[in-house]
Amino acid sequence: MKLLTLLFSKSNQIPRWFILLFDLGLCAFAYAAAVVTRYSLGVPDSFFYAALSVMPIVLAIKLITIYGYKLHNFVLRHTSVQDGLRIFTSMFTAFITLIFIDGIYSYFPSHKEHIFPFGVLFLDFFFSMFLLGSYRAFIKLVFIRLNSSSDSKKTPYVIFGAGSAGLTTKRKLEQESAEGIKVVAFFDDIDGGNSKLLEGVKIFNSIDLESVLTKMEVKQLVIADPDLSIAKKQEIIERCLNLNVIVRTVPPVNKWINGELSFKQMKQVRIEDLIERDIIQLNKNAIGKQVNGKVVMITGAGGSIGSEIIRQLLNFKPSKLICVDSSEIKLYELDAEIRDLHASAADTFAEIVVADVTNAARMFNVFNSFKPQIIYHAAAYKHVPLMEDNPSEAVRVNVGGAKILADLSIQFKVEKFVMVSTDKAVNPTNVMGASKRIAEIYVQALNEDQKRLGHNNTKFITTRFGNVLGSSGSVIPKFRKQIEEGGPITVTHPDITRYFMTIPEACQLVLEAGNMGQGGEIFIFNMGKSTKIVDLARKMVKLSGLTLGKDIQIVYTGLRPGEKIFEELLNDNENTLPTHHEKIMIGKVRQYDFEKVNESLSALIDSYNTQDNLLIVAKMKAIVPEFLSKNSIFESLDNNVKLPNSSDLQELLMK
User: Fold this and answer.
1) How many other C-beta atoms are found inside a 10 Å radius of the C-beta of residue 452?
2) Counting Cβ atoms within 10 Å, is residue 169 exposed (0-12), middle (13-18) or buried (19+)?
3) Pairing of strands 220-223, 459-465
4) Cα 332 to the chain's mean position, in Å?
5) Phi-psi group of 578: left, alpha or beta (phi > 0 → left; psi -120 to 50 → alpha; rest → beta)
6) Using the 8-state DSSP alphabet, how is residue 178 labeled?
7) What rounded mean pLDDT belongs to the chain?
8) What sections of 419-561 are H helices per DSSP?
9) All structural domains of the chain
10) What is the 3-state secondary structure (H, E, C) of 528-548?
11) Would you call 382 exposed, middle or buried from its count of C-beta atoms within 10 A (0-12, 13-18, 19+)?
């Protein structure tokens, strides 16, 4: 009785040796049945007994194939189609082996008869498969029957995706979860929806999602369709969030552990999944031609953008990567990561350089030592409130650093200089955005001046995009930390919106812009719709399984110094031109005279020594007249700054 209980409810606890012997016993019965069937038409007894006498050889061969294909390791109550295929393969291997042995035996002239009659082996093959498969299927059916009475105590799950990945997900959910789980429905946008079954579970069309989830009181949905578009995935997540249904996702098949899906790999969706867009298709051949065999330098290499640019460049074949950053700890971590990816070549492939881009002597030595051919300039101060309080540092790093690198690029005949900018440079309302706009103006003016002089050695290119998900200091890590701590979640303004993109997206834009740029362009990414920050916070609360207003609160703290409610990618006097890539545009911006720009920037950078914030910001406003401060002490300067074509502009700049 105990054995039967184990067999039907705890078959995974039955000793493996017992299953092996049981399988062998079934094979013996199958062979005997095959002999009786073959010789049941009045043939001499000698044939009958001769066929039975070789049964030990047959069983020995089958023992080897059963053990070799590990049929005894099956969890009987979870027998699957894959297990059936292994039974077929095992028995077919035994069948072919026995025929081969019989062929060798009958080859010798002294052996006039076959040791294994083909008819017996043929019947035995089918009988063995039937018995080995049917008893496993029987145990599975009884197990399902015995456990159906306790289904009311199990957590109902539904799966989106009724393909092979969805079926595997169902089995793993019901097998491996610590709590009892029952899959009550599949969803799939297929023809004939609501009329098909998969392992006895009904398949519904996604249009019925809300009604089915509500009727069956489902609290968990797993997305297991590898071909589901990002837009469709986001739609499903949004619909589930409205019903407070937790959504999990199954990783791609190539990320399954040893080809097997694990329950722990079914991760709950994150806010990044709701903002994610289709992957940008890079022109990898063209990028490869540009960077392969070249010395490539990345400034800000330890930051979010710089380190991701390096990861993506590792997919190509630059002769050397010069990784420049002023942060020792970030470079240490980056060096360790590169060594993990390129263990044998790390010492010669990547150069880790601790350097400050504002130190002209140090950067001259870097250029002179490594002779970079392509530069991705991502080093910058980027946090708006901090730079509003420290404008001299914004000028020193964001303006002065860019100028030093750009000038050295001309001196050392760098082929391409790609600068990472920001949407905050458009109609800036803060010091950080204005400092990045001034850097844009300088490299553009320098590029045009080089063309005027007939020097086309260096092409200066700018990329401009919005907020990057997951970067240090960005809103999502901040909200996530606040949720973990129980709140409140702090939002500056109920109407504030931002454009978002992922770090890989941003870096793909930088690489693609560097590839297509001919010098002087500002490349702008089509970032889709902007997102309200408060909506982002609400969705993160729901994704965390909490109830807003009950478990956690949202508190409005007011706009920070220099902060806009709405970000822009172009100002009113700019427009765009299309490129060969549908998601990348070229911004048409104003042209500047290099001599005047150079003189103005030099005066601005020299004003750093005064540490007079009002003077520094006044000079910035003179260079960028559309820079109108918001919620800042520098608003008092806006009425004093005249238009850029006014006769006293240079006088103001040189004060």
Assistant:
1) 9
2) buried
3) unpaired
4) 24
5) beta
6) S
7) 79
8) 431-452, 475-484, 503-516, 533-543
9) 2-148 (no CATH), 151-269 (3.40.50.720), 284-636 (3.40.50.720)
10) CCCEEHHHHHHHHHHHCCCCE
11) buried
Closest CA to 571 of 646, 500, 632, 626: 626
Nearest to 157 by CA among 199, 187, 192: 187
Tokens 């009113």, residue? 572
| pLDDT surpassing 90 at residue 79 | no
The whole-angstrom separation of Cα 222 and Cα 224 is 6
> The tokens of 57 are what?
């050889």
Written as six digits, the tokens of 72 are 């005894």
Helix ranges, 177-278 (H): 209-215, 230-242, 271-275
Note the Cα 492 to chain centre separation in Å: 29
- Which pLDDT value is given to residue 298? 96
Cα–Cα distance, 597 to 397 (Å, whole number): 18
**Among the listed residues 471, 477, 390, 382, the one whose alpha carbon sits nearest the alpha carbon of residue 420:** 382
Give CA–CA dist 350/335, Å, rounded: 8
Nearest to 430 by CA among 391, 457, 403, 475: 391
Burial 289-323 (b: 16+ CB within 10 A, else e): ebbeebbbbbbbbbbbbbbbbbbebbebebebbbb
DSSP bridge pairs for 185: 158
Band (pLDDT 50/70/90 cuts) for residue 111 is low
Map tokens 């990329």 to a residue. Answer: 463
Give the Cβ contact number of residue 200 at 10 Å.
Answer: 7
Residues in CB range of 285: below 8 A, 6 or more apart: none
CA distance 84 to 528: 49
Mean pLDDT of 570-584: 66
Nearest to 104 by CA among 57, 65, 34, 56: 57
117: preceding bond cis by omega (within 30 degrees): no
The per-residue pLDDT for 643 is: 38
Question: What span, in angstroms and rounded, lies between the C-alpha atoms of 277 and 188?
Answer: 22
Q: How many CB atoms lie within 10 A of CB 433?
A: 27
Phi, psi of 186 (to 5 degrees): -110, 150
20 within 8 A of 66, measured Cβ to Cβ? yes
Secondary structure (3-state) at 248: strand
DSSP per-residue letters across 201-213: EEEE-GGGHHHHH
| CA-to-CA dists, residue 605 to 388, 415, 435, 624, 628, angstroms | 17, 26, 11, 15, 20
Do 515 and 287 meet the contact criterion of CB atoms below 8 Å apart?
yes
Name the band, by pLDDT with cuts 50, 70 and 90, for residue 331: very high
Count each helix (H run) and each strand (E run) in the chain, helices first.
25, 22
Instruction: Give pLDDT tens digits for 293-329.
Output: 899 999 999 988 899 899 888 888 899 999 999 999 9
Q: Which residues pair with 578 in a beta bridge?
A: 585
Read off φ and ψ for residue 49, nearest 5 degrees.
-70, -30
Under 8 Å between Cβ of 160 and 188: yes
- HSE, side-chain direction, 13 A CA sphere, residue 538: 11
Contacts of 515 (CB under 8 A, 6+ apart): 283, 286, 287, 290
- φ, ψ for residue 611, nearest 5 deg: 55, 30
CA-closest candidate to residue 530, choices 462, 467, 575: 467
